[in-house]
Design goal:
It contains 14 helices and 63 strands. With about 900 residues, the protein is mainly beta.
């Protein structure tokens, strides 16, 4: 029986009825104590004797009381009078979303505003373990302050919700102003609820997708004349595309709705947090419209267009004088279409050099095959460039200095990349740059059609996923014992499964590296093949680098199995083993981009300071990791073969500019440190999965083995008393700074944390130890007293280590500490240790016309940086 006006429940006086639902009647009332209007929800007397209904009513009170949020209807009080249970709720002036939608779809601005608010409320509920389970327009109130989520009568904690099936939970729905029907509730329920499976937060996300669809179109996502036909539509049918009903709707909105309405919970957006972040990105100005015209390839440029199913069209090779465009490469086992193979060259803009793959310049082509993106160096700035294939115009994207590992969005409108220890994105035509999340040392990314980005955030971290609008990353792989890295992820077309490179500790060879397959929602992975290369997939073919050649092999993306033999596509493709990175990319339209291995030599350069032209140091070679002897007469440097990538340590005579070989065991990489008297050199090498550290006579080359291990050890510095080596090793926690005692050859960790610490170096007096660490989310320079104490001092403030995590060097007196900025510029900080430890603000020593990636200091101060990015193995 309805409660008449004037009835009192304690201090609350009933004013008028507001509506009724399956879980109670709602009245407008006045709180006489605070003189405010409230809403009173009462449980009808004939329901009080029903234990289940009473328990749900009490559960709603407990649930709402735990959720304090501006977009969740607040609970003020709870009580009982004359056998009537009641809740006192926030009175909301406005109308339900269901009533508002009777007038038609919402404007785009209003839609995004309310959608973000609802998603934010859901995020709050889910974080408290509460699943709503009855999300629909009738349970959302639209007020002047925005949307408010109401009616948690069916809400339960996750554990309880999982124990109760959906059919048991269904109730008759009665919106506040209209009689409801059972169909009104069913139309917003997730497939797993209709099938009687446990509901979780992802079930709310499906319901949210139904609500969002209705907000955009004014129509319900799923319809049926009968309950059975409605069930069938939800379980097996897809709603009409939003764009067919509302052509001017943003593409990003449709993508978000589709991601919510996936039948399988594993295929949906997984959290309300991710959902909110995507909505916030989509509502930003320019996020839902392209700022670059997507031009189709002209037949006159590439030759005749060919059908995707019959031919892999266009092989594009980009470089200095080694660039070529190969069109109409025929799919094996099928007849060749007309057009043949065509080759052309693409040269760089004047004053611009294409950086090589060792600088993480992975040339990428847009999925639609219309544009290429790459990293080039111009006037000392390493930036991201875009070039349409049907135009000779290049566009430098402002704000992308220091970019690495670029990758495209699936709609070819945006480019993701890493810079300044962050994962970022930018419109392909230039515009507002957005930071998505932290990525201390990103190692590749991939963007799915469902708006999620896979990426490797660090050198030794698992693969993670983050919404394309940014947010908190979620780990999707787990690095098992014995493996050192997961990197170079690649989404397959279903946007659920992905491939990535996994390598055993300190390995970058095919024998110890594998291509693994993973799946969102599961931490389990399985091996696809032995491989040490990034991959690309197109039309049933998997592309990868094998023995420095680009090959393609038939691949079933469903079973994750390869078949047949690899087919050669191009020889001598640029490949950098230390990063497992081959320089190629494949568009979904069938264009393959690659770059041949550069043949040019590299030049070590002397830099004497501001205003002085750099001078050449010795002949050209494929150099990295230069280290100057204490007397300044010799330079130890790693020189590798441009084809195999392996090499040895060579000694450069500074006076004569000549080179002589020191070691005769070719390896993927060496690091070196001179002894205080310059008579010996400590070396660390990596061959396959085997690391070895030795003490080598600088004159005769005679070597004494110091340590052999599968945990690669990087020697970095030699203490001035000659007794200790500062080094880094790669155990289960990632890179740790360690000390090797040359008397007993014992290695002792100095810093053993969950963070990565490298480039350890003794101060000249041996009382302090400098190193690089990513504990703040990106590499910075730190100093700790030696022997180590709990004290540590941060020297840099805007990132350090260059692009490679390079050297940190004390000057001869210990009064300055030198390092590289994240943009490859030489920096120094003054050091004072007489009255405790004090450091000055870092300053730029000089502006280089090149992006530096490693350096060393001569005894009198001048530095010896590299002209081109080094091939460091410590990545």
């Amino acid at each position: 029986m309805p409660i008449i006006s004037g009835t009192k429940f304690g201090p609350y006086e009933i004013l008028s009825p507001l509506g009724a639902g399956g879980m109670g009647e709602v009245y407008k009332a006045r709180d006489s104590r605070l003189d405010r209007v409230v809403a009173i929800k009462v449980l009808p007397s004939d329901f009080v004797s029903t234990p289940e209904v009473k328990e749900r009513f009490e559960r709603e009170a407990r649930t709402i009381s735990s959720l304090s949020h501006p977009h969740i209807c607040a609970l003020f009080d709870i009580g009982q009078q004359d056998g009537v249970e009641y809740l006192v709720l926030e009175y909301l002036e406005g109308e339900t979303l269901a009533d508002k939608l009777k007038k038609g779809p919402l404007s785009i601005d209003m839609l995004f505003k309310y959608a973000v608010q609802i998603a934010d409320a859901l995020e709050k509920a889910h974080k408290h373990g509460v699943v709503h389970r009855d999300l629909k327009p009738a349970n959302i109130m639209v007020t002047r302050s925005g949307a408010k989520l109401m009616d948690f009568g069916l809400a339960k904690p996750d554990a309880e919700a999982a124990a109760e099936t959906a059919l048991e939970a269904m109730t008759v729905s009665k919106p506040l102003t209209t009689e409801g029907t059972i169909v009104g509730t069913f139309q917003y329920m997730a497939p797993e609820q209709l099938e009687g499976h446990p509901a979780d937060a992802r079930s709310d996300i499906f319901s949210f997708g139904c609500v969002l669809y209705e907000m955009a179109t004014g129509q319900r996502a799923f319809k049926g004349k009968t309950q059975a036909s409605l069930f069938a539509a939800i379980l097996a049918s897809e709603p009409p595309a939003i764009s067919t009903i509302r052509p001017v709707s943003p593409p990003a909105l449709e993508r978000i709705v589709n991601a919510c309405l996936q039948k399988d919970p594993e295929d949906r957006l997984q959290t309300a947090h991710d959902l909110r972040m995507q909505l916030e990105w989509a509502m930003q100005p320019g996020a839902s419209s392209s700022s670059v015209t997507q031009a189709a390839l002209q037949p006159g440029l590439l030759g005749s267009r060919v059908q995707r199913k019959k031919i892999m069209t266009s092989l594009l090779v980009l470089g200095w004088l080694l660039a070529a465009l190969l069109a109409a490469w025929m799919f094996w086992r099928r007849p060749q279409a007309a057009g043949g193979a065509v080759r052309a060259e693409i040269s760089m803009p004047t004053g611009t050099e294409l950086t090589d793959v060792s600088s993480s310049n992975h040339i990428v082509i847009s999925p639609d095959g219309a544009n290429i993106a790459f990293i080039a160096d111009s006037q000392g700035k390493q930036s991201l460039y875009v070039r349409p294939l049907n135009s000779s115009a290049f566009r430098r994207l402002e704000g992308t200095d220091g970019a690495s590992y670029p990758f495209w969005s699936p709609d070819s409108r945006f480019i993701g990349f890493f810079a300044d220890a962050k994962l970022k994105k930018i419109p392909a035509g230039g515009g507002v740059l957005q930071i998505l999340c932290d990525a201390p040392a990103g190692r590749g990314g991939s963007w799915s059609s469902k708006g999620m980005i896979l990426f490797a955030p660090n050198i030794a971290s698992p693969i993670a996923v983050v919404p394309e609008g940014g947010g908190e990353p979620r780990q999707v792989t787990s690095i098992p014992p014995g493996f050192a890295t997961h990197r170079l992820p690649y989404f397959l077309p279903d946007a659920k499964h992905f491939l990535f490179v996994a390598s055993e500790a300190s390995s970058n060879t095919e024998a110890e590296s594998t291509l693994q397959a993973g799946e969102l929602g599961s931490m389990e992975t399985r091996m696809v093949m032995r491989s040490a290369s990034n991959v690309a997939y197109q039309d049933g073919n998997l592309f990868f680098v094998k023995d420095k050649n680009l090959v393609a092999q038939t691949f079933d993306a469903g079973s994750m199995k390869l078949s047949g033999n690899p087919i050669p596509i191009a020889e001598r493709v640029e490949y950098y083993g230390a990063r497992y990175l081959g320089n190629f990319s494949v568009s979904q339209s069938g264009i393959v981009v690659y770059r041949n291995q550069p043949l040019e030599k590299k030049q070590l350069m002397w830099h004497d300071g501001p205003g002085k032209e750099p001078g050449k140091a010795g002949p050209q070679g494929n150099f990295s990791d230069p280290r100057i002897s204490h007397n300044g007469q010799k330079i130890a440097v790693f020189q590798s073969d441009s084809v195999s990538g392996k090499g040895d340590v060579w000694i450069m005579d500074v006076a004569r500019n000549t080179l002589s070989r020191l070691t005769f065991e070719p390896a993927e990489g060496y690091t070196v440190a001179w002894s205080p008297d310059d008579r010996q050199i400590a070396t660390s090498s990596l061959s396959g999965n085997h690391g070895k550290s030795e003490i080598v006579d600088a004159g005769s080359g005679k070597a004494q083995v110091l340590r052999e291990s599968n945990d690669f050890t990087l020697v970095a510095s030699w203490s001035s008393d000659g007794n200790l080596l500062g080094s880094s090793q790669n155990p289960s926690t990632g890179w740790d700074v360690a000390i090797v005692n040359l008397q007993d050859k014992k290695l002792t960790p100095l810093l053993h944390t969950k963070f990565s610490e490298t480039a350890g170096s003794f101060s000249p007096d041996g009382k302090f130890f400098s190193y690089l660490s990513d504990e703040n989310g990106r590499l910075e320079v730190y100093v700790t007293p030696y022997p180590a104490t709990d004290a540590k001092y941060q020297i840099s403030s805007d990132g350090a280590g260059g692009a490679e995590g390079s050297n940190v060097v004390w000057n001869k007196s210990g009064s300055e500490l030198y390092f590289l900025s994240t943009k490859g510029q030489m920096m120094s900080a003054a050091i004072e240790t007489r009255n405790g430890f004090h450091s000055g603000a870092p300053r730029q020593v000089f502006s280089s016309s090149r992006v530096l990636s490693d350096f060393d200091l001569a005894p009198d101060g001048p530095s010896l940086p590299r002209k081109t990015p080094s091939l460091r193995l410590s990545i």
